[in-house]
Amino acid sequence: MPVEVEVDVGSGLPGFSIVGLPDTAVQEARERVKVAITNSGYKFPTRKVIVNLAPANLRKEGPAFDLPIALAVLAASGVVPPGSLAGSGIVGELSLDGGLRGVRGALSFSEGVDREGLRRLVVPRENAAEAASAGKVDVHGVGNLGEAVDLFRDGEPEPTYPAGSRPEESPAAVEPSPDDFADVAGQGYAKRALEVTAAGGHNVLLSGPPGSGKTMLGRRLPGILPPLTLAESIEVTKVYSSAGESNGALVKRRPFRAPHHTISTAGLAGGGSNPRPGEVSLAHHGVLFLDEFPEFSRGSLEVLRGPLEDGHVTISRVAASVTYPARTTLVCSMNPCPCGYAGDRRKACRCSAGQIERYQSRISGPLLDRVDIFVDVPRLTREELRSGEAAEPSEAVRGRVAEAREAQTARQGAPNAALSGRPLREFCALRGDSEALLSRAIDRMGLSGRGHDRILRVARTVADLAGKEEIAAEHVAEALNYRRSATFDL
Amino acid sequence: MISSGESTGFAGSREGYLFLSLLQARTGTSLLRRMGDLSPDRLPEMSDRELGEHVKLSEKARRAFGELRREFDAEAVLGRLAQTGASAVTLADGGYPERLREMPDPPPALFVRGTIPEGPAVALVGSRKASVTGIENARELGRALGERGVCVVSGLALGIDAAAHEGALASGGPTAGVLGCGIDVIYPRRNRELFERVRGSGAVVSEYYLGEQPLPWRFPARNRVISGLSETVVVVEASEKSGALITARHALEAGQDVWSVPGPLRPPECRGSNRLLGDGAGVIWDVAEFVDAVAPEPARPVAPRALPMEELEEGELPQHEARVLLEVGFEATGVDVISGRSGVGMRELLPVLSMLELKGYVARDSGGSYSRRGR
Question: What is the ipTM of this complex?
Answer without folding.
Answer: 0.76
